[in-house]
Specification:
- The protein is globular, with a radius of gyration of 20 Å.
- The chain has 5 helices and 22 strands.
- Helices cover 12% and strands 43% of the residues.
- The protein is mainly β and 280 residues long.
């Protein structure tokens, strides 16, 4: 049964990385339809492309599968190679083909080598903090951020454009340095996916009603009872979606197939972060 998962599970040992969900850097992109993508670990020397594989500085995948909210503009941005692209997700094998399922997609405004480690910067109720990507170390506290050294002039002229990312699930990704408890970002990554200030209903429908070869009846219902008794024409599969609850941060949805299976998930209003709550 299809399931949407976004677990942060990092395992670091002697600068070798294998994880179910990790940050990777796009090292090269295909120039023809017969080629694939070469991905490398962020802030690590090697990784394993699967649990059974040997350590390697890079992994080859035939395809990068973006999240449902990564539209054509998002894909053109992160897959075109115009900027330095990072992805967060998992290596998978589908029908014998190695792919990378990207739950997060980020890039810089120009494609140049990283000038240092990539950090995750966050604004919490206790102030700013930073942490190196793909490391389990405790986040370090900061007094301030100063974008005066940023290579992307958009952040120099308007530092507030980083606020949504700083408060989002992934935080703001950037290289940079710390001086007197102030972090100075240099290469700042734009977040393409999950989308900031997202359309939660559009994302929920993309999750509940993915393209299928089967004859399906896709409906929005008002209650679980309605879903369980909804009339379905013979030969069709009922796929349903309903609003369940919400608060100031997230909206909770329930989706299912007939009355046989259902899954409850939440979507963050700000950045479309998806969290699985229960499955039946």
């Amino acid at each position: 049964m299809r399931s949407i998962l976004l677990f942060l599970m990092l395992f670091v040992l002697n600068s070798e990385l294998y994880a179910e969900s990790i940050f990777v850097e796009m090292k090269s992109r295909p120039s023809t339809s017969d080629e694939g993508f070469v991905l490398g670990p962020v802030n690590q020397k090697t990784l394993r492309c699967s649990e059974a594989s040997k350590s390697s500085p890079t992994c080859f995948v035939s395809k990068i599968i973006p999240a449902p909210d990564c539209d054509w503009e998002c894909q053109d941005g992160v897959l075109s190679g115009q900027g330095k692209s990072l992805f967060y997700g998992e290596f998978e094998t589908r029908v014998g083909i190695a792919v990378f399922r990207a739950d997060g997609a980020f890039d810089t405004y120009q494609n140049k080598p990283l000038d240092g480690p990539v950090y995750r910067l966050r604004l919490t109720v206790n102030g700013y903090e930073y942490q190196k990507l793909n490391h389990e170390r405790t986040p370090q506290k900061l007094n301030a951020l100063d974008f005066s050294k940023a290579e992307d002039s958009n952040f120099v002229l308007d530092p507030n454009r980083a606020t949504a990312m700083l408060e989002g699930s992934f935080g703001l990704l950037a290289t940079g340095f710390v001086s007197q408890k102030t972090f100075y970002p240099r290469q700042v990554f734009r977040q393409w996916s999950p989308r900031l200030g997202c359309d939660t209903w559009a994302i929920a429908k993309a999750i509940a009603f993915p393209p299928t070869d089967e004859e399906s009846l896709d409906v929005i219902v008002g209650s679980l009872a309605e879903a369980e008794t909804y009339p379905v024409p013979e030969g069709k599969t009922l796929r349903w979606l309903m609003w369940e609850s919400e608060d100031q941060d997230s909206i909770v949805f329930r989706m299912g197939i007939h009355e046989l299976w259902s899954e409850v998930f939440s979507i963050n209003r700000r950045d479309c972060h998806i969290n699985i709550l229960e499955e039946h």
